[in-house]
Design brief:
There is one protein chain. The protein is an all-alpha fold and about 270 residues long. The chain has 13 helices and no strands. The N and C termini lie far apart (about 65 Å). It is elongated, with a radius of gyration of 19 Å.
């Protein structure tokens, strides 16, 4: 059994010392893109904020900058956490939750198992920069029930914040990188999903759990147990953050009455424009 020392202020820097440039800096690129994404959304969806938030497409797009802020805002998680520790999330996860979920790491290395710097890049960049936007592009093109697909990505963000940050912090009574921003992201996600009924909340959260089970649980186990490339994690993240929410929107959408009312309202608005 390999040692599993408590992470220190230098653990993240040590992990990044052998990483590629993109693995060390993707979170800063996300921070620079966030203002442009927000300005683009404000331009794409005219009208008051009340009108914007009544538009399921706007709400679906909003998860992209919000999740970027989950990685960056208030210097948290993958850049610098509240203690000013560089890249603190991965060492903290590998030491705690990761070592419990993936006991095989006891035989490998708790510094780079289950998460390596490259796998962390795949999970975050592919999911938030590729999967989430692709979902919304298709939702725009197809319309109808697909307009609600972005809500299921809110389910992924909410499950991540609740199960990956808030619950562990409450159980251990210790700060973990990403905890503070999750206190904002999780209630926001629940409120936005709840506007379309309890069924919507339940299905979105189910989609979020499924995302983590497949892309994270299955993907990492395939890498650790079969020796396959970490690219498989990227592929699963892409599928679970784009195809999966679109399928949920089509076959297991929110309250059917709420969906029908929303679509009729949108159609009436288009006719009066």
């Amino acid at each position: 059994m390999v040692p599993n020392p408590v992470p220190t202020a230098t653990s993240g820097r040590r992990l990044l010392s052998r990483a590629e440039w993109i693995d060390s800096n993707w979170m800063f690129l996300g921070m620079m893109l966030c203002p442009f994404v927000i300005m683009g959304l404000l331009e794409l969806f005219p009208g008051s904020f009340r009108r914007k938030f009544s538009n399921a497409l706007f709400v679906g797009w909003l998860v992209v900058p919000v999740y970027c802020f989950h990685q960056i805002e208030e210097s948290q998680e993958h850049a610098y956490d509240l203690r000013k520790w560089r890249y603190a999330f991965v060492p903290a996860f590998n030491h705690g939750t990761g070592s419990q979920l993936f006991p095989l790491c006891d035989e490998i290395s708790h510094l780079t198992c289950p998460l390596t710097a490259r796998m962390t890049t795949y999970i975050n960049v592919v999911t938030v920069w590729v999967g989430f936007p692709l979902t919304m592009v298709v939702a725009h093109l197809l319309g109808g029930r697909y307009q609600f697909a972005g809500l299921f990505n809110w389910g992924t963000a909410t499950v991540n914040g609740l199960m990956g940050h808030i619950l562990p912090a409450l159980l251990t009574q210790e700060y973990n990188p990403g905890f503070v921003q999750s206190l904002v992201m999780v209630p926001s996600g629940l409120v936005l999903m709840a506007r379309y009924g309890r069924r919507c909340v339940a299905l979105c959260m189910l989609s979020g759990v499924l995302f983590h089970v497949v892309s994270f649980g299955l993907g990492i186990n395939l890498v650790l147990r079969t020796g396959c490339s970490e690219v498989v994690v990227a592929v699963l993240c892409a599928l679970c953050s784009s195809v999966q929410p679109l399928l949920f929107a089509k076959f297991a959408c929110a309250d059917p009455n709420a969906v029908e009312q929303y679509i009729n309202k949108q159609n009436r608005a288009k006719k009066t424009e």
